[in-house]
Amino acid sequence: MIASVLIPLVAYAQINPSNTSSGITITAIFKRLTQIFNLIIPFLVLLGTVIFIWGIVKYVTAGGDEKRLEEAKSIIVWGIIALAVMLMAWGFVAVVIDAIFGTENLPPLPGPDLTPFL
What's this model's pTM, rounded to 2 decimal places? Predict the structure, then answer.
């Protein structure tokens, strides 16, 4: 019973405490957050675009029904709002990164690097 309690301590004794720092710095945290946002933002922009296009399709197929036209207009407006919010969020992050790290050039738009295909 006592041995099962002490085994983790024996295993921890094998670790050199000077090598346990994983290099977590504010720069590393911001880089990781940037990677996460660069993966999430394109999907949210895609979602906003799909909502916008869905509103256009509903508007075209409304057939003159006022209630359906108003619903379609509302969907179109929400799609535009979603796209504007996503682009403003990207711009805000770029401004904050520039203010903190003092970079002169803006980061690229979020999403995969398409340079090899251009």
Answer: 0.59
